Amino acid sequence: MTVRKAWLVGGAVLGAGLSFVMLLVVGVYVVAGNLANGVGGATKALAKGSVPAAYQNLVQKWGNLCTAINPALLAAQLYQESGFNPKAQSAAAAQGIAQFIPGTWATHGIDGDGDGDRDVWDPNDAIPSAAKYDCTLASYVKDVPGDATRNMLASYNAGAYAVIKYGGVPPYKETQNYVKTITTLEESFAAPVTRVDPSKQAAGAIYYAQKKLGTPYLWGGDGTAQDSGRFDCSGLTKAAYESVGISLPRVANDQWNAGQHPARDELLPGDLVFFSDDLTNSRAIRHVGIYVGGGYMIDAPRTGAVIRFDPIDTPDYFGATRVTEDGAKALPTTV
After folding, report:
1. Between 189 and which of 58, 75, 175, 185 could a Cys-Cys bridge form, CB atoms 3.0 to 4.6 Å apart?
2. 287-293 and 272-275 as β-strands: parallel, antiparallel, unpaired?
3. How far apart are CA 82 and CA 262, in angstroms?
């Protein structure tokens, strides 16, 4: 359902930089071969700033309500449903940050903050209610074989009866896609517990971006003929990954959720790097670039500038995302 670093590069330096990038394009695969372990299993630690600060404690607390859920999973559901927008309302009358329809709210809404009312528009009630509803569904299918979390998510989409009937996730394409979407999105909200697997498409994305060096910036630019081949920051990253078959959302703060988040000392060429004036809230991200190694990125900085190399180690550095195909596919088209 429905939710920028001046560094001017002279000609000689630019030429050297291009050679540097091409070495990194090759080297990314060498590094990839040395990273054997990906993230394994669910984690209860949220990635830095992945949930808006106003809801961080709520998601952390209520995401541990039962063993079938965790904070990252609950965050993924809220992002998928509303993009953390407490005023969201769908055409199907789903309401609030957790997108409860009135009938479900009447039955499963709780007074999460103990103020004497149950308000679907109040995240202090709606987030606890979402967690409680998940756990209630999990209890309905607790005796069904298989993974308790997957069975709970399937119950959310298709109903507990279908999960019981089929002895697990039912053979409905919509339900199977929903389970995969939420469990994939969960990874983008969870703090990694081991090194994150490198993206196989990273080298191609860098290759695309480095060919655009020197192109003037255009706000809202997607690189089309209508835009005279110009880009803004997220238009460049989107086009770079589209060149290798991965479709990203248009705006930077949604691109954040296209995969897991390597630490600063784990960055590899091709990772998306993000910047924000609010380091507690991924929804406030305002700039993105493509990391090329050595502490630099290729980015489209601002009006009046050109696509260029810029340093990433600035006070507004927010974090990074290692883009995956599944991660990109899981992102909602509108949030």
Report:
1. 75
2. antiparallel
3. 26
Q: How far apart are CA 310 and CA 319, in angstroms?
A: 15
Q: How far apart are CA 239 and CA 207, in angstroms?
A: 11
For 306-328, b where at least 16 C-beta lie within 10 A, e where not — what string?
Answer: ebbbbebeeeebbbbbbbbbebb
Order the strands of the 272-275 sheet from edge to edge: 259-260, 317-323, 272-275, 287-293, 296-299, 308-311
In whole angstroms, give the CA distance from residue 139 to residue 250.
Answer: 39
Report how far residue 307's alpha carbon sits from residue 234's, in angstroms, rounded to the nearest whole number.
Answer: 12
- Measured distance CA(235)–CA(288) in Å, rounded: 10
Q: Round to whole Å and give the CA distance between 120 and 90.
A: 13
pLDDT digit string, tens, across residues 278-321: 999 999 999 999 999 999 999 999 999 999 999 999 999 999 99
State how far the Cα of 250 lies from the Cα of 237, in Å rounded to an integer: 9
Rounded CA-CA distance 291/94 in Å is 39
- Residue 246: CB atoms within 10 A of its CB come to 23
pLDDT in tens, 120-167: 999 999 999 999 999 999 999 999 999 999 999 999 999 999 999 999
| Beta bridge partners of residue 289, listed in sequence order | 273
| Catalytic residue list | 81
Residue 242 has a CB neighbour count (10 Å cut-off) of 16
